[in-house]
From TrEMBL:
Binds 1 FAD per subunit. This is Ferredoxin--NADP reductase. FAD binds at residues 34, 42, 46, 86, 120, 287, 328. Keywords: FAD, Flavoprotein, NADP, Oxidoreductase. It catalyses: 2 reduced [2Fe-2S]-[ferredoxin] + NADP(+) + H(+) = 2 oxidized [2Fe-2S]-[ferredoxin] + NADPH. GO terms for molecular function: ferredoxin-NADP+ reductase activity; flavin adenine dinucleotide binding; NADP binding. It comes from Lysinibacillus capsici.
Length: 349
């Protein structure tokens, strides 16, 4: 048998990363398993979006926020494995056996589910041949705004992400057009108005029906759209196409028959604000956890993580303090604090 960890965290998004930090703070031997090649979860889909709603933290780009979360998560040297998809969790003699798609087994005294909305992948255009443009100018997320400068852009989708991108790209683009298959956009009204005020062209009841390549067949040059009501169509020259049709959720994680965890909407784990579930030894934090009074914001995610880890600590050590000591008085940070202060006040050379 491999090493048995105190806690194995499944999921490397904000909830999982902060759980890894806090588990180390509470002195737990910690492992984190992430199915994707990179840590960061859904925030990775929006690297250039500014995050405003973290208490006491100035607006920060998603990409920078993830880097900081990862650095923080590694504070107490947890074992972190990426590209590790968990398929099955079994309970055996008070130890959880975690099976991966690669046939590996991991052993843990407790499990902390932090899988968010599941393994997510964008809903792609179903047009024939669309996939060949994904390496050029067909995008399912916006990694960098630089490539959109002075470009004619078409965005397909009517949700918050689509309209947010329209607003953010409009100052640097030559033009931005949003097409949406329904009559009314589903994005927030204030954001829609902001897009209109910025000169974004919004065409509802409209879908993309054809993508036509440039002369050397390497990128999209023309986009054909059709009005779903009148059936009239038009073709327009476009430099960049962004598709924001939402995401498919893969919820393939399974449990053996000995593990019974009630679920909400056949996916979300029903539990408590403490992170506890109906199954002793299995805890949850972040979007996957459902309870009355749940706050579905990043600040709520961090509270979920701390509560779940505290519950794990007292589950493993019933006489342990319910809460960890605040960082400002915690001996674990004494040397780290001294190093940071010395660097801050070191004389310039």
């Amino acid at each position: 048998m491999q090493h048995v960890y105190d806690v194995t965290i499944i999921g490397g998004g904000p909830a999982g990363l902060y759980s890894a930090f806090y588990s180390g703070l509470r002195g737990l031997k910690t492992k984190l398993l992430e199915s994707q090649p990179q840590l960061g979860g859904k925030v990775l889909l929006y690297p250039e979006k500014l995050i405003w709603d973290i208490g006491g933290h100035p607006p920060v780009l998603g990409e920078q926020f993830v880097k900081q979360l990862i650095e923080q998560a590694k504070t107490f040297d947890p074992t972190i494995l990426t590209g590790t998809k968990v398929d099955l969790i079994e309970s055996h003699n008070d130890i959880f056996v975690i099976h991966t798609a690669a046939g590996e087994k991991h052993y843990s005294k407790t499990v902390l589910l932090a899988v968010g909305g599941g393994i997510i992948s964008p809903q792609k255009l179903t047009l024939e041949g669309a996939e060949k443009y994904e390496m050029s100018n067909l995008h399912y997320t916006v990694q960098s705004y630089k490539r959109f400068v002075d470009k004619d852009i078409m965005i397909s989708g009517g949700g918050n992400a689509a309209i947010d991108w329209a607003v953010e790209l409009s100052p640097i683009a030559k033009s931005v057009t949003v097409v949406y298959r329904k009559e009314n956009l589903s994005a927030h009204e204030a954001t829609v108005q902001e897009a209109l005020d910025a000169g974004v062209r919004i065409e509802c009841n409209t879908t993309i029906t054809k993508l036509s390549a440039n002369i050397d067949k390497t990128a999209i040059q023309l986009v054909t759209c059709e009005n779903t009501i009148t059936k009239q169509s038009y073709t327009r020259q476009i430099d960049e196409v962004i598709v924001s049709h939402g995401y498919n959720r893969e919820a393939s994680l399974a449990f053996d028959e000995a593990i019974a965890i009630p679920k909400k909407d056949d996916y979300y784990v029903e539990g408590k604000a403490t992170g506890e579930t109906a199954q002793p030894g299995i805890f949850a934090a972040g979007d996957i956890l459902s309870f009355d009074g749940k706050i579905n914001l990043l600040l709520g995610t961090f509270q979920d993580a701390a509560n779940a880890v505290n519950s794990i600590k007292t589950y493993l050590e019933p006489t342990a303090y319910r809460h960890g000591m605040v960082s400002s008085h915690n001996e674990l940070f004494k040397e780290k604090n001294r190093s940071i202060i010395e660097k801050q006040f070191a004389p310039a050379h």
